[in-house]
Design a protein that fits this description.
CATH architecture of the largest domain: Alpha-Beta Barrel
Largest sheet: 8 strands, mixed
CATH class of the largest domain: Alpha Beta
Number of helices: 28
Structural class: alpha/beta
Radius of gyration: 31 Å
Helix content: 40-55%
Number of strands: 22
Distance between the termini: 74 Å
Bound molecules: phosphoenolpyruvate, magnesium ion
CATH superfamily of the largest domain: Phosphoenolpyruvate-binding domains
Strand content: 15-25%
């Protein structure tokens, strides 16, 4: 090596400096001297990045000492600013000819021609920049760059580990600044607590290798074990059939066998790092590079790389791969890149205050479970798992879809108040549980509950819901790791009915396809999945699948009333075919002397607009109808419910939607057939008020909505509402939304909405 005296010697010296009983500034001053000496450089400087994105010269050997704590530059300004902004090393034989060069006269650096700077990175975050400079024009070798990067890593550990902490007076602000992050709402509620990383970062406390050859052997062994475990995973995935999961595993395998990755790891070890420190170094570097990529494919690869590096670290250190219940604090907020539904269920629910995910929005499986458990959760929070440290104070706001990391005292106090208020309101709602939902003018409204997991069911009693108005069976299928066999389905449906024994359950047959994908089933590539092969369409085309579900439901409901409804009915004839499938199964069960349900009621979901013009036909065939307002809205306005750009563009409280809803309520009265509504809008007190005004007398909603909707009902005068809404809909004003008018009505009549 031309310049450096050897990385191992340098790392040893730095360790010695760290052990000396001296102040932090003196320590840093000694560190830069050691680095300059070892790298045979005239200059070595450390710049630290502040929370306000300013870089400050913290220590230097070679430049004017007076410039320390005086020279600053913005992120992106000058070469040092550029290195910090890009988080990439830069080696320049002639720094002054670089377009980004910015002259700082107080440093006296104009006499130095060559420049090598590397970012000081931790977990992909830039903490500062480490620089060496030489008077003579020279080209820094790959090895020298590598050595400086390793040294920078050591510095990062010192800064994060507190060994240099007194240099950062304002509570070492570099790492500890408060952050306010936005995400996607997954589950309602506000939770305050402390960060628990679902996949804890491995703490690498031994950075410097004592025996490099030994470390190379450790690295090779760990890689071999990793490859073996990934191969095993791929083989197991292969058995399960094609799917997204398998693609991820294939990517893992590709990376695990990637020569470049292995080479970089080995190089890092040969600079004097332990195997685990090398993995962290290489990964930190890769993260920093990939995080700046805008291409989603490349960013996706970052996750794969991260996960694999993490596995390798665990392999090397023997530390646990996921957080365990034993050391879960009382008020844990789980932070994860991504998480499976089953993993969330493994945690002690009593201790969970919130969940924050980097990947995974409201439609993910873990989201479904978080909602069922009532854990406030926010998803799609960019980079969260790198921005927090275990134990950090954190607030999850599942109402606004935001996350406050290390909040200041004001923010924390405001949220604590918000959480208290919510708790008080919940208490009030609970006190309404046994009061019948009857309006001021004596109209009874049935409040039903939506469910989809066994976890949801205890809420029936807590909320006083009259029945499960919608049981989304696909959720049971989505959290399973294989397609449930008929016997398993039977047991599931039976448990559901047993758990709410005194109240009816309306099972909806599998509503898969579109956005709801079963992990173990083939994903179809459709141009327009929402308009594609889904729900009842699959059931009718694959009768064995539908019939096995129906048989399990009918068997589970022996001796009771069984209610079944079909999703995505687009024409009356489809309902006839679905009924025929039920009859077929009934005949089978009778023939085999199985006990039968006492009564069977079959319903259709009204969520495809074509049914609006077949209302009489469908009402004649079905025993009940249930409006799926989420899909009805999506199809009526041709606005994808999962596409953020358009999903809130139109208001369900608009004349077209309310008129459509009224025509459905009217057919119920005309034909004397029960009609409920089970989409999200039924759970909003304002929308529920309007629905009652349209003639709806049954609404099914998520458990947390029942209290607020009941409070609204108790204060409502239906006759006044009906008259008001009738006038509003008759008057073709062309307003895009009637929300404001309805709010004004609620305010005037003191209806809490
Ligand atoms: C709906 O579409 O309104 C509905 C209740 O069903 P899902 O949200 O499951 O599609
Ligand atoms: Mg639907």
């Amino acid at each position: 090596m031309r310049g450096s005296l050897g990385p191992r010697l340098l790392l040893r010296r730095l360790r010695e400096v760290m052990a000396e009983p001296i102040g932090a500034q003196a320590r840093l001053d000694k560190i830069v001297v050691q680095i300059a000496f070892n790298m045979v450089a005239e200059v070595c400087s450390v710049y630290v990045l502040h929370a306000d994105k300013r870089l400050e010269l913290y220590a230097t050997e070679g430049l004017n000492r007076e410039a320390v704590h005086l020279t600053t530059m913005r992120l992106g300004e000058g070469i040092v600013g550029l290195i910090a902004a890009k988080a990439e090393a830069l080696a320049l034989p002639d720094a002054q000819s670089h377009p980004a060069y910015s002259y700082k006269p107080e440093t006296g650096e104009e006499i130095y021609q060559s420049f090598l700077g590397v970012p000081i990175l931790r977990g992909g975050n830039t903490l500062g920049v480490l620089v060496v400079q030489n008077r003579a024009r020279r080209i820094y070798s790959e090895e020298e760059i590598e050595v400086l990067q390793t040294t920078a890593m050591l510095l990062a550990e010192m800064i994060a580990g507190g060994e240099l902490v007194s240099l950062f007076p304002a509570g070492s602000e570099v790492l500890r600044q408060s952050l306010s992050l936005k995400g996607e709402i997954i589950a309602d509620g506000v939770g305050l607590g402390h960060v628990v990383l679902h996949e804890p970062r491995v703490i690498v406390d031994k950075l410097v290798a004592e025996n490099i050859d030994g470390e190379i052997v450790r690295l090779d062994e760990a890689i071999a074990a990793l490859r073996e475990s990934v191969d095993r995973l791929v083989d197991r995935g292969e058995e399960a059939g094609p799917g997204e999961h398998r693609e991820i595993l294939q990517t893992f395998r590709m990376i695990a066998h990637d020569r470049g990755w292995l080479r970089r790891l080995r190089e890092a070890v040969s600079t004097g790092l332990t195997a685990e420190a090398a993995v962290e170094r290489v990964q930190s570097d890769t993260r920093a590079k990939l995080m700046r990529q805008t291409d989603p494919y490349m960013r996706g690869r970052l996750h794969d790389l991260d996960e694999l590096a993490n596995r390798l670290l665990h392999q090397l250190t023997g530390q646990d791969l996921v957080a365990s219940n034993e050391n879960l604090p009382e008020n844990a907020v789980l932070v994860a890149r991504s998480m499976g539904a089953a993993a969330l269920l493994d945690y002690d629910q009593r201790k969970l205050r919130g969940l924050v995910l980097e990947d995974g929005g409201a439609m993910s499986h873990v989201a479904v479970v978080a909602r069922a458990l009532g854990i406030p959760a926010v998803g799609d929070v960019t980079n969260i798992s790198s921005l927090v440290e275990p134990g950090d104070a954190i607030i999850v706001d599942g109402v606004m879809g935001s996350v406050e990391v290390r909040p200041g005292p004001d923010v924390e106090a405001a949220y604590a108040e918000k959480a208290r208020l919510r708790a008080r309101r919940q208490e009030q709602y609970r006190s309404l549980r046994d009061i019948p939902a009857v309006t001021r003018d004596g109209v009874a409204i049935d409040l039903h509950m939506n469910a989809g997991l066994l976890l949801d069911l205890p809420h029936v009693v807590e909320t006083g819901a009259v029945s499960i108005g919608l049981f989304r069976t696909e959720l049971l299928f989505m959290v399973a790791d294989h397609f449930p066999r008929p016997s398993e389905q039977y047991a599931l449906y039976k448990s559901v009915m047993d758990m709410v024994s005194d109240r009816p359950v309306t099972f909806r047959t599998l509503d898969i396809g579109g956005d709801k994908v079963l992990p173990y089933m083939m994903r179809l590539d459709e141009e327009n999945p929402a308009l594609g092969w889904r729900a009842l369409r699959i059931g009718l085309d694959r009768p064995a699948l539908l019939r096995s579900q129906l048989r399990a439901m009918l068997r589970a409901g022996a001796g009771r009333e069984v209610r079944i409804m079909f999703p995505m009915v687009a024409e009356a004839a489809e309902f006839d075919r679905a009924r025929a499938a039920v009859d077929h199964e009934l005949a089978f069960l009778t023939q085999h002397h199985h006990p039968l349900p006492t009564e069977i009621k079959l319903g259709a979901m009204v969520e495809v607009p074509s049914l609006l013009w077949q209302l009489d036909e469908i009402a004649e065939r079905a025993d009940f109808l249930s409006v799926g307002s989420n899909d009805l809205m999506q199809y009526l306005f041709a606005a994808d419910r999962d596409n953020k750009r358009v999903s809130t563009r139109f208001d369900p409280l608009s004349a077209p939607m309310l008129r459509a809803l009224k025509s459905i309520a009217d057919v119920g009265q005309r034909r004397n057939i029960p009609i409920t509504l089970c989409g999200e809008m039924g759970g909003s007190p304002l929308a529920a008020m309007a629905l009652i005004g349209l003639g709806y007398r049954g609404l099914s909603m998520s458990p947390s909505s029942i209290g607020p909707v009941k409070a609204m009902i108790l204060a409502l005068d239906v006759e006044a509402m009906t008259r008001f809404l009738g006038d509003l809909l008759r008057d073709a004003s062309g307003e895009p939304s009637l929300r404001g008018r309805l709010e004004a009505f609620a305010a005037e009549h003191q209806v809490p909405c």
